[in-house]
Amino acid sequence: MRELLLGYGTVVMYYVMAVSLLYFVVLFLSYKGVYGMIKGAVYSRFRSLSGSEYAPPVSLLVPAYNEELTIIENVKSLLTLSYHTYEVIVVNDGSKDNTLQVLIEAFRLRPKTDETVHYEIDCTKIKTVYHNPDYPNLYVVDKSNGGKADSLNAGINLSHYPLICSIDADSLLEKDALIRMSRVYMENPTETVAIGGNVRIANGCTIRDGDIADVRLPKKMWPMFQTLEYMKAFLGGRIGWSHINGLIIVSGAFGMFRKDTVVKVGGYRDGYPGEDMNIIIKLHRYMLENKLPYRVAYCPDAVCWTQAPDSYRILSSQRKRWGRGNLKNMLENRDLFFNPKYKVFGLLTVPYNVLFETLNPYFKLTGLLALVGYVAMDMTQWPILLTFAIINFLNGYLLAVGSLVLEELAFRRYPSVKDTFKMIGFAALMFLGYYQIGVLWRLQGHIEFLRKNNSWGVMTRQSWNQDSGTKPSTVTTGGEA
């Protein structure tokens, strides 16, 4: 037994070293990528796209299920973006609340009987398309409930432009977000099949007329942790992966795609969470199998602000859903694992995701059990355990602080010095329970997957118009997959 524990401890030690090394390599690539993006933006031929007729037209797709509290502010915000030609397509996915009614009343919509829907990809049949000539670039689609992926496919079938952009109904775009995305696209339009935007937490910010009027950190603990988590993932991770064309996910909250390529791969995969990762895997697979040059890019200065779960129950539901989606995607695409046919994506991205994301909870759990065994069998002493704990903390903390430094150097969305110190402090607190709970949520998500639980879960929305200090009105949303 002692030999078994010693052998497994050695394996885990090398595993942790490999994870740490890869995390720092990706962070380094993120710094390198940001430098290249900033330099490219300064000398780009497409710096002044606002109002330019040469900017490619875009169809914004907004799936909406039980979104009556946020949808009007969201749509008003989208209708005032600084962009020449675009349309907003809101897809009401069989909402059980008044989402459709508030849209009809707010924008005086009427059924558009002469609209032709081209069913290029599978989706639930559209019941009615609503429109008002006074808002020429707004369309509202009404359909039976089919889930988020089905709603996106319905929006694609109705869309009129060559680029599509997915937006969550609880999110707000910065006015120049589409301009920044388009600049990245136009630098290499023939090869760019997808571009990810940067998602930030809006909890704590002041919203006026669909704009982020005052950027502040969340006041509650759970959204604060998520703010740092998103910053680490989007700035310290996705920039680096995009630098080597190995990005495995474009957030469903804000991503731009070339419509013709999405149609060729069959659109979004319906029936389970994780559609945002699945569509990117399908794009990588299609382009590589057909030996076509391509890139999946990331634009960190194109910002989308979203509401984050502010309670343990809602956050745990979201993270378990993410765990289910990740596991299902990896199992269904296991042929990519270390497959040289798929180049960087097959040799590095997928193995990294399987070994250091999907299986990470199991290594952590078994490592903890092995540690208990060491103590029980008197195979270690507390100074050694303390040393390893400090090293593990410093390793993770440096990664977190590295993302904060990247934010301060390149973006500075949080101007207050007080906010900076608050983030530094919370980055340390995350090691005292939050990361450990995250492991539990992922494991629970895997158990739900084995039990064939494909439900979306629940999410509460808060009206953007709530004044600080008042009790928020909420509505429960949970699109049925």
Q: List unreliable stretches of 5+ residues.
A: 467-475
Straight-line N-to-C gap: 46 Å
- Just give the CATH class: Alpha Beta
Q: Kindly give the count of domains.
A: 1
Biggest beta-sheet profile: 10 strands, mixed
Shape: globular
Q: Give the name of the CATH architecture.
A: Alpha-Beta Complex
Structural class: alpha/beta
Mean pLDDT: 88
Helix segment count?
14
Report the CATH topology name.
Answer: Spore Coat Polysaccharide Biosynthesis Protein SpsA, Chain A
Bin the strand percentage: 15-25%
Rg calc: 23 Å
Report the strand count.
14
Order of strands across the main sheet: 3-4-5-2-1-6-11-8-12-7
What is the CATH homology-level superfamily?
A: Spore Coat Polysaccharide Biosynthesis Protein SpsA, Chain A
Q: List the helices and strands in order.
A: HEHEHEEEHEEHEEEHEHHEHHHHHHEE
Report helical residue fraction.
40-55%
In brief:
With 481 residues, the protein is of the alpha/beta class. The chain contains 14 helices and 14 strands.
Description of the molecule:
The protein is of the alpha/beta class and 481 residues long. The chain has one domain: Spore Coat Polysaccharide Biosynthesis Protein SpsA, Chain A (Alpha-Beta Complex). The protein is 49% helix and 16% strand. It has 14 helices and 14 strands. The strands form three sheets. A ten-stranded mixed β-sheet has the order 3-4-5-2-1-6-11-8-12-7, with helices on both faces. A hairpin with a 2-residue loop joins strand 9 and strand 10. The protein is globular and about 80 Å long. About 2% of the residues have low confidence.
